[in-house]
Specification:
- The complex is a heterodimer of chains A (136) and B (292).
- In chain A, 56% of the residues lie in helices and 4% in strands.
- With 136 residues, chain A is mainly alpha-helical.
- Chain A has a two-stranded antiparallel sheet.
- Chain A is globular.
- Chain A starts with 17 loop residues before the first helix and ends with a helix.
- By secondary structure, chain B is an alpha/beta fold.
- Chain B is elongated and about 75 Å long.
- The model of chain B has no long low-confidence stretch (mean pLDDT 90).
- The interface between A and B is medium-sized, with 18 and 26 residues.
Chain lengths: 136, 292
């Protein structure tokens, strides 16, 4: 899966450490079925070079995911998605992964004292717009 | 953990009765990239100069590559590369002449590597050193310090005059250097934004001591900001958590904590009858909070 490398992006100055951002991204790709059983992840060096970060950071993310059984290290092939993720996860499971972002949104909306209806309207507009642009 | 390449214990250094270093301890393990962070005037340069034996501390022990920096043989000294904050002149020389001249002092000067570095930093060999911009001089100083392929590279504010693109290039080169076995880097800076990419260890110099020494990830996971919204007036201090800052205004408060766990947070919410949002901070924000 060489195209997967283009899907990675990081924000170095965000509060979450970069290795965390990478782990969360891979989790989302697994959940969405963008990464499937048998897919290879970019090598540590490739991904580090592309994101201009320390290879140790990529290693750390991969190793932690490997420890949790989300990835598997194969001799000669690097990191691959193990067989368990044959099918993309259910919508409910994917929605659960969205929860941290939603919590943040809700908290900020409250701080700004915005009415729920206005926020929901803005959010659905955004979702529609994105969909038109990506054509899905 | 490997043997430290550099170790300082109980360093004191004062200038005219003003204590700059006050009982400072620091360890730089072999293979580390360590960013020394501190406000202007925190004593970063003084510390580096003490560590390298350029300035004598009033008190304290320093071990540099297994020796005292005041009593070091030439072979050991040649394992060090140093970029001072202000580069020496030689304005009348051309870049190519300068690197050959400097190279003559080193047994292991590698001209191929120097030429690669000059190209990487976009420095022309026939340019007069005197006509270089501040940023170009700084890059040249880095090339000079790396030409003999040192084991320990010490840089004092190496990115201060570099533009963001050159800073990024410089950090790439540092990481590349550091991925080879036995190569250690210590550099001081007050620019936090690029450090995050380099996954460096950070040592934060504050009031003459190291206030924090550890990985950026660890620091980011330890120091966080709490936004507290309670249904009733809040107490004057936060119970049971290590707090760097606590600003209360009636039922709401802002706190910066060190090492709060999820359990602590849940407990705190219950105790205060409050809703608490936890926010992780950028290295820059953490640096500002630690220096408050």
């Amino acid at each position: 899966m060489t195209e997967a490398i283009a899907l990675f992006h990081i924000s170095p100055s965000a509060g979450a450490p970069i290795y965390r951002q990478l782990m969360d991204q891979i989790e989302r790709m697994l959940a969405a079925g963008e990464l499937r059983a048998g897919d290879e992840l970019p090598s540590v060096r490739q991904l580090a070079a592309r994101l201009e970060i320390n290879p140790m950071t990529v290693s750390k993310a991969y190793s932690l995911l490997e420890g949790g059984g989300r990835l598997q290290r194969l001799r000669g092939r690097g990191m691959v998605v193990p067989g368990r993720f044959e099918e993309p996860r259910s919508e409910a499971a994917r929605l659960r992964l969205l929860e941290p972002a939603l919590d943040e949104l809700v908290a900020q909306a409250r701080e700004l004292k915005l009415p729920a209806a206005a926020v929901v309207e803005l959010l659905s507009k955004r979702l529609e717009k994105k969909r038109e642009r990506t054509g899905t | 953990m490997k043997e430290p390449v550099l170790e300082a214990r109980g360093l004191h250094k004062s200038f005219k009765r003003k204590g700059v270093l006050r009982g400072l301890d620091l360890e730089v393990p072999e293979g580390a990239v360590m960013g020394l962070l501190g406000k202007n005037g925190a004593g970063k340069t003084t510390l580096i100069e003490c560590l390298l034996g350029l300035v004598k501390p009033n008190e304290g022990e320093i071990t540099l590559l297994g020796a005292s920096p005041w009593d070091m043989d030439t072979a050991t000294r040649q394992r060090i590369g140093y970029v001072p904050q202000t580069s020496s002149s030689f304005g009348w020389m051309r870049v190519g002449e300068l690197v050959r001249y400097i190279g003559a002092f080193y047994a292991s000067w590698n001209m191929d590597n120097v030429q690669r570095l000059l190209a990487w930093y976009e420095l022309e060999e026939d340019a007069k050193v005197g006509t270089l911009s501040e940023g170009q001089r700084q890059r040249l100083a880095i090339v000079q310090a790396m030409g003999h392929d040192p084991d320990l590279l010490v840089l004092d504010e190496p990115v201060a005059s570099l533009d963001p693109a050159a800073r990024r290039n410089f950090l790439k080169e540092l990481i590349e250097f550091n991925t080879r076995p036995g190569k250690t880097v210590l550099f001081s800076t007050h620019i936090t934004s690029d450090l995050e990419r380099s996954a460096a260890q950070v040592a934060i110099l504050k009031e003459g001591r190291i206030a924090f020494n550890g990985g950026i990830d660890e620091l980011k996971e330890r120091i966080c900001r709490l936004h507290i919204h309670a249904g009733r007036p809040l107490p004057t201090t936060l119970p049971a958590v290590r707090t760097l800052r606590y600003e209360k205004d009636g039922n709401t408060a802002l706190a910066v904590t060190d090492g709060i766990t999820e359990d602590d947070l849940a407990q705190l919410e219950q105790q205060l009858a409050a809703r608490i949002n936890l926010e992780y901070l950028s290295l820059e924000d953490i640096f500002v909070e630690l220096n408050r």
